[in-house]
Amino acid sequence: MSTPTPLDADAVLWSADPGDRDGRPLLVLLHGYGADERDLFGLVPYLPSELAVAAVRAPLAPPFPAPGYSWYPIEGLETRDPAHITAAARGLIAWTDAAAAAHRTIGLLGFSQGSAVALQAMRLEPARFAFAVNLSGYVTPGDLPRDSELAELRPPVFWGRGTNDDVIPDFLVAHTTEWLPGHVELSGRVYPGLSHSVSEQELADVRVFLDKQLAQDDGGPGSA
Fold first, then answer.
1. N or C: which terminal CB in the chain sees fewer CB atoms within 10 Å?
2. CA atoms within 13 A on the CB side of 38
3. Start and end of every Phospholipase/carboxylesterase/thioesterase domain (predicted)?
4. How does the average pLDDT of the chain come out, rounded?
5. Residue 221 resides in a domain
C-alpha cells in the first residue's frame, strides 16, 4: 500500500478569509499534472459566490524537466498505478479532516489527475463529499470496499470531456462511461472539438450544476 504524502497547508489558495468562509459550502479544486494551486483558482469568478473555494497543491514533483506538481506518478499513459491514486485520495481526505471542519458540505472539482483523485476520494469516503465535478478525468479501475455504499448514496457527479482529448486513454474513458452511471447520479456533456482542456461552454455547464447543488443543499452527504 502506498503511503499518502501530506498536502502542504500553506500552499492552498482560498477565495475568502477565514471569518468569511466558515459555515459556507466548500468546493475543493484539484489541479492536473504539471500544474499547481494557481491553475484552477482562476475559475473562481465563474463559480457561485455562495461557495468557499480552496485550491490545493498536489504533493509530488513530476520528473525533471516537467513543471509544477502531480498527485501521483505517471510513467506512461498506460501505467497509472491504482495504489498511487488511492494514496493521493487519502492525502486529500486527511487535508479535509484538518481544514474543512467548519464547512457544512464539501464538494470536489478536479481536472485530469485531479479528477481521478476526487472520484477516488469519493469512493473511499462516500458520505463525506456532497458532489464532484470531473473535468477531463476518469474513474480508477479496480474495486474498493465502499463502492456499494457509494452506489446506494448516488451523489451527483458532473463529467465533462472533449472529443479531441488525446491525453486520457480510450480504455479509461470507456471504463468511466460504464462505471459512473451505476454508482453516482451522473450528468455531463461531451464537447465537440475540445482537447484536454476546459471551454467557456463547459464552465457554464459546471455553473448550472453547482447552482443546482446549492439549491438542494440540505446538510446531507458531505455534511461536516
1. N
2. 2
3. 22-212
4. 92
5. no
Residue 4, in any domain of the structure: no
DSSP assigned state of 43: T
Beta bridge partners of 30: 56, 110
Q: pTM value?
A: 0.93
Cis preceding-peptide flag for 65 (omega within 30 of 0): yes
Q: Which domain holds residue 118?
A: 12-215
Domain count for the chain, please give it: 1
Q: Phi/psi of residue 216, each to 5°?
A: -95, 0
CA distance 8 to 95: 9
Q: CATH number, domain at 141?
A: 3.40.50.1820
SS3 148: helix
Contact 135, 110 (CB under 8 A): yes
CB atoms within 10 A of CB 182: 11
- For the record, the C-alpha cell of 42 comes out as 482562476
Q: How far apart are CA 115 and CA 122, in angstroms?
A: 11
* 114 Cβ contact list (under 8 Å, min separation 6): 29, 30, 31, 32, 40, 58, 71, 137
| Residues 190-211 pLDDT 10s | 999 999 999 999 999 999 999 9
The string over 96-128, giving b where at least 16 C-beta atoms fall within 10 Å of a residue's C-beta and e elsewhere, is beebbeebbbbbbbbbbbbbbbbbbbbbbbbeb
Three-state SS for 16? coil
Starting at the edge strand found earlier in the chain, the sheet holding 185-191 runs 12-14, 52-56, 26-30, 106-111, 131-135, 156-162, 185-191
